[in-house]
Amino acid sequence: MASAELQGKYQKLAQEYSKLRAQNQVLKKGVVDEQANSAALKEQLKMKDQSLRKLQQEMDSLTFRNLQLAKRVELLQDELSLSEPRGKKNKKSGESSSQLSQEQKSVFDEDLQKKIEENERLHIQFFEADEQHKHVEAELRSRLADLETEAAQHQAVVDGLTRKYMETIEKLQNDKAKLEVKSQTLEKEAKECRLRTEECQLQLKNLHEDLSGRLEESLSIISEKVPFNDTKYSQYNALNVPLHNRRHQLKMRDIAGQALAFVQDLVTALLNFHTYTEQRIQIFPVDSAIDTISPLNQKFSQYLHENASYVRPLEEGMLHLFESITEDTVTVLETTVKLKTFSEHLTSYICFLRKILPYQLKTEPDGLLRTNYSSVLTNVGAALHGFHDVMKDISKHYSQKATIEHELPTATQKLITTNDCILSSVVALTNGAGKIASFYSNNVDYFIASLSYGPKAASGFISPLSAECMLQYKKKAAAYMKSLRKVQQSLEKISKLEQEKEHWMLEAQLAKIKLEKENQRIADKLKSTSSGQLAGLAQDSAAVSNAAGQDEAAAKAVPEPVQSTSLIGILTRTSDSEVPDVESREDLIKNHYMARIVELTSQLQLADSKSVHFYAECRALSKRLALAEKSKETLTEEMKLASQNISRLQDELTTTKRSYEDQLSMMSDHLCSMNETLSKQREEIDTLKMSSKGNSKKNKSR
């Protein structure tokens, strides 16, 4: 499952990578086109610059030529002014000079006219060149703005792609980590599921064997012990206790709880609706605090004032019905006795509603056949939906009525508030009716299907009386099963106590045998040894260091009393006139050894129990250690595979990252080159502007 998810992630990554490659190709194509356009614009700018320089040179030559012609005209005018007084003095010679001056003047006029025409033509050409330059400059400016916007868009696209690439990388890394954790958990769950399946298979096998044995035993008991089959007749079968269906009871209790909540909401909405309607009658169309209302409204208000006594029992009846449905009961229509009280309360509320209306109908509920239950339940669902539709219509019309009344100039704030309260209660009532209708429609199939719940191989209960008898039988059967369970538990306790009794009886017999052997051994030793050897025996048994001094004191019969400090206790207390009592010594030795034997047996039992406990713990620890080693080996293998997958994914990510970084660097280089070309074009345009401005100023000055 984790590998499938990883493969899906890789496929998504490949799709995104292919999309990015296609976008990159489009961007490359756009960059190449822009470079070609920028190169063409550069060529156009160069051509325009050359033509502008040529025109500038022509303009300079023409201005120089104009200056020469102006000087020549001035010289000619000076000569003409000088020649005029001479003509007055020399009339005779004036005829020849006047002829010469006229010829020269005509020549000069023709030359001047030609120069003026040429100057006008050059001015026209210069004006046309200036207009064309301005037009080209405007086109280049618009083209430059378009290129700048396109460059900004390309940069935004590149930034978006880089951001999206980083986000996808982070997302893939997070998804990778989540998938690794999920794969580990899924592998653990798979192992647990495998172990559970093995255990379940073993349990299923054991249960199959057990059930097969029980089936054979039950069939033999039924064939031998059952005198007749009471499920054959419906009258007898209705008295049988059905199989306890706890799931059915929990489902019915859950449904009853939901119905209780819906009925509570509906009761609250009905109480609000009736109360606010009564308040509205008291203030509209005549306020009862100011003037007397009509007898009809008084009667209607009196009826509405009684709504709580009819509406509250609905909630109480549904609550009692919910409390009557428990895990121990059998819930069908015949056994839910509390449903009758709820239906009676509902009938009384319907009668109250009909009393509110101008007419009233008499209803007498009768018993229903079991075959008609499904149709009745279906009709109840249709009635609930009809009630919901009616409440929607009431809400719609009353909202329109309230809006019309609010617009009236005579509407008081109290009336507006009451109308709003009635509208809210009507909306709550509509919502409650809709919830109940949808709830009933969703569960009507279950209600119809639950009618067949009853004794085995029968259509159900015959009557509520038989259902009541069945419930009593069910209680008796449950009590009988509890008593049987108690008897079984007491029998098990008795068997355990008998086993413990036998165990302790065996322990007592063993202790008695050991005691007899020890008494026999002590008696033999006392008979074969003297009193001094008796003290030596006490020294040997208790390992006391002062036994030799006691032997010497006993042999010399010192008159002072001598007391032994061995484990046996006080053995002798003698004097010159006293002789040690053999029976008292035997009793002391017997009692001491009996106490010692009891102590040693208790210590031995404690040591045995501790050793058994330690042995069980060691076995459990060894098993856990073996399982831990196996799990460690599997986990190391899984860790190796996971590390290999991680390294492979990291390599793929690094390769994709490098490819993306290379593409982004190439795109950034292209964009930088485009920016440089655009900046150069801007500089050239600025120079052209400056030169054109200078030329225009010169032309103006000229």
Give a verbal description of the structure.
The protein has 702 residues and is mostly helical. The protein has a domain at 246-451. It has 13 helices and no strands. α1 packs parallel to α13 and α2 (91-225) packs antiparallel against α13. The longest helix has 135 residues, at 91-225. It is flat and about 195 Å long. Mean pLDDT is 76; it is low at 537-580. Pfam families: KLRAQ, PPP1R21_C, PPP1R21_helical.
Radius of gyration: 61 Å
CA-to-CA gap between the ends?
Answer: 89 Å
Helix percent reads over 70%
Average pLDDT across residues? 76
User: Beta-strand level of the residues, as a percent range?
Assistant: under 5%
Structural class: mainly alpha
What overall form do the CA principal axes indicate? flat
Q: Tally of extended strands?
A: 0
The major β-sheet equals:
none
Spans of 5+ residues with little confidence (pLDDT < 50)? 537-580
Count of runs of 4 or more consecutive helical residues: 13
Helix/strand order: HHHHHHHHHHHHH
Keywords: Coiled coil, Endosome, RNA-binding
Protein name: Protein phosphatase 1 regulatory subunit 21
Biased composition (Low complexity): 95-104
Organism: Propithecus coquereli
